[in-house]
Amino acid sequence: MKKTDENLTPNKRYDIPKKKEVKKELDRRAFVKLSSMGLGAVGTLSSMPLMAGPFTKEDFENSVPLDKKLDKDWVKTLFERGTPDVFTSQKDELKYIGMPVGGIGCGQLYLGGDGQLWYWGIFDARTHSEYGSTLYRPIVVGEHYRVPISQDYSVSLDSWLVNQGFALQVTQNGKTTIKKLNSAGYDDVSFRGEYPLSKVAFRAADNIAVDLEAFSPFCPLNVNDSSLPTTILQYTVTNNGTVATSVRLGGWLENAVCPLVADPGQGFRETEVVKTTNGLTISHKASPRNTGEIARQDLEKWSGFGTLTLTLLNADGQENIGGIVKDGMGIFDLDNAQKQAKEIILSSRPIGALSSQSISLAPRASHTFTFVLSWHFPRYRQEGGEMGAIDGWGQHKREYARRFDDAQAVNNYVIENWDRLVSQTKDWNTTWYNSTLPYWFLDRSFLSVNCLASQTLHWLDNGRWWGWEGINCCPGTCQHVWGYAQGAARIFPEIERYFREEVDFGLSWQEDGSTWYRGESGKTIAHDGHAATIMRAYREHQMSADDAFLKKRWNRIKKSIEFLIEEDGNDNGILEGRQYNTLDAAWYGPMGWISSMYLGALQCGKAMSNEMGDTAFAKKCHNILEAGSQNIVAQLFNGEYFIHKPDPAHPDATNTNNGSSIDQVRGQNFIRQMGLPRVIPEKETKSALQSIYKYNFVPDAAAYHEKMQKDIPGGRWYALAGEAGLVICSFPKGGADKAGGGRRGHLYVGYFNECMNGFEYEAISGMIWEGMLQEGMACFKAVHDRYHASKRNPFNEIECSDHYSRSMASYGIFTALCGYEYHGPKGALGFAPKLTPEDFKAPFTVAEGWGTYTQKREGRLQKTNLTLNYGTLSLKEFSVELPEGAVPKSSKLMANGKRVSATVSHKAGKYTWKLSRLKLNKGDQLETEIRFQSREQ
User: Does the global pTM surpass 0.85?
Assistant: First the structure.
């Protein structure tokens, strides 16, 4: 453990295995034993439905069972609306749960499964990577997946423990009881997570029910309102009994300002109770022992310097009670409590407490108590680390320092703008779940956006956005990791536009058109990331209201496309030279994966050129693209899937040769997100994706891993015994023994054995776009089941580290299932639902608004309704998909019940209205009706 961690309390449940212990746990006999148990063992342990099997050793003779043996009842759950996942203390499902409940770019704070706040990563942030450290060792075995952290975890500086909690006092039939609102106070607790909203239910024999909703304000497209260093906790207490009952609810908060400073000679902690118009506030801060500017500047350098507040809002005109207590459970004896704690030496931590007055609840009556926790810890550590590469490092603070002077100012802003902040958050929650899609699908496709509210993402006070790959893991908003993400681009498009405009085609852009793949922290090119960034530039243009973004950066984007063309060398549409990529090595020779990315970049380049009036360059892109689309099939398609032909001049280089790579048609999958024409023919694309399901989807990852150890030793653990997933590369036609080149046994070669959910999501989105609905949904549900709360935190998707940014690829599965296409500057929006198109309802976002799309088919009539729930939507073109073989006879388009004049067309099943620009505002509706007959009639 590092020197800076000496004073921290290790988590007693979290015994980090020594290397020899890890080896012992993962040896062959252990895996054989676990694998022989099959998937049914996991189903029994976690009370989850049986997914597949049972399997025998013979099923894995060829590494991957071709018969997946999916259970019929489990398959039904893929498509049914189902019921929300609710995790309970009764099933021991709460200890790993940690949902981020702070604003994006504001640090990291979890709400646990029992309603307890934990992982207090709000005080400061590491500026150096923990990649490969002895503390986390994420690169060795994916430690937090295999050994998930639980609620009492405290070995990291970022998870410093804070004495904080809430409790309820109940007086019933003359008897008074006090219970903490967590698992220590209640035996019956349940948790429902709907990011960004957490819902916790506390139940007891006294029939007094408590329901908590906790969240930080969150509104898609509104970054400022969604990046507040605050958490709102609303407790609704209901009397389900038959007699009147009196209740009081209170909370306490320790002064943890400067949490790592315990030297009494350095200064003081100060706490006071402050009365405001709307409630009562505990205010925590720290001050230097000596006076003067120098003393204050020294204090501000301390880790976690800032302010912290907890407010209990007034209710029903009653004023609350507050004071200083010796321990949290003194909250209901506050009448005689001290009101201030001035100049408490830094070796002590005063605890402030707040309580409501007694509230009488008649039978069936309810009352809501609201707390607001706010913080202001804007300073970063000064030692630099990888973040030290940022220009002007040492002067930067978190962005919220530009808007707020301290935590009280944050608190005041939240209360003053309460109606908007709360209503927007809950309106989005309602919009997202007011859908016909399965609950599990809605959960898994959206929750990865919470990476933005973890220590993965940082927003600096000069406006700079900057991201790790995962928490404290690998710097520079890495192109070839963030390049998989789709969620941020659709929910907060201005963040991704910033990355393209100011980073990739800003500080990272070079005169030859190359781009640094890690910004200042990685001044070289990664070909997959470079190609993805060109495609993302077009996506960001589409998610804009106008063409200002593209106009500003088009010349640089064009030059970056030309750089790839130069790398091609002979305009055959295939890259053959050095290709550094996200699997952390340079590969050589043509391959389906990166050449498909090149073709995708050309297709986007063609589209952008045409929009910018650069027809000559559009023609150049078109010609190379035409050649590449043919050559990638002729040279790299083996009849089933796309392969890699290693360059004999580089025999030591990592390669997949005859293997089935999970990313082999990634470029084609990506451009489907933008509604562009194919870069790889339909037949070969579908065959490749079917092969990924056939050869890469393993129903027992541990059994597969064991089978591969002879040829490809190693691989980190993101799927364990009995857990299913898509592996990065399998070798159904041989070649595994050659994959390592001269690096057999190297960590990076071991990647091929792994199930990494971000890669899986990208392939799954392709499957769904291509109509492989059951295969795609099965692979997606397998990831969801891996993250069941009985086994690990459902809200922390792990790769190299926690809250890994590549996980935001999951949102691309959602857009694929909706058949969503959008182009803001053109005012074009369309849907082609892949699941229950006869009765479909789902949310959508556009450049300046969001809402709900509904589609119904009754006989030979298709009706749709688009309702805008937030912002505005400018439309010039709207399209929907008709049933296969349908021939439209008549149609109408209406806005708020009034007919809209438009020209119509029908091509390849898509029915399109083109109209004069129509602007919809919040509450407006666009409705369509199409009458059709079958082609045979």
Answer: yes
